[in-house]
Amino acid sequence: MKLAGVQPDSVTFLSALYACSRGGLVDLGLDYFHSIGEMQDMEPQLDHYVCVVDLLGRAGRLEEAMGILETMPFRPNALIYKTMLTACKVHRNLPLGEDMARRGLDLDPSDPSFHLLLANLYDDCGRSDLGEETRRSMRLRKQSG
């Protein structure tokens, strides 16, 4: 696009970040992300930050992903916490996963996906007792609601 003199827009960058995330092209994705701020009249939006957290999380770079989450100029939403929780499940990081589930549930206590992701994380980390307890708690909430 640069060679053709075409200015990428926000959606183009989002698509490129998504493709890099799915393709495991972490360094290229980070280059794209950082170049958004270099564009005239363009700043990264929350969706861009979610994609970068996904990019880093899939690569197992959870500390870097948390650094992005903690320093972004937006208030985190449920999606970014689910993205981090999913990465924690993949890479079996129980302490960080529990923290992401807690933060997500603080935002939206009625969202069952946090409970399910956390239960699966417990199972994957050899804590099926906590996984079952989390599922049981989820069923009780559903019955009472």
Automatic annotation (TrEMBL):
Sorted UniProt keywords: Repeat
GO molecular function: RNA binding
Record GO biological process: RNA modification
Superkingdom of the source species: Eukaryota
Pfam family, one: PPR
Full protein name: Pentatricopeptide repeat-containing protein
Lineage: Eukaryota, Viridiplantae, Streptophyta, Embryophyta, Tracheophyta
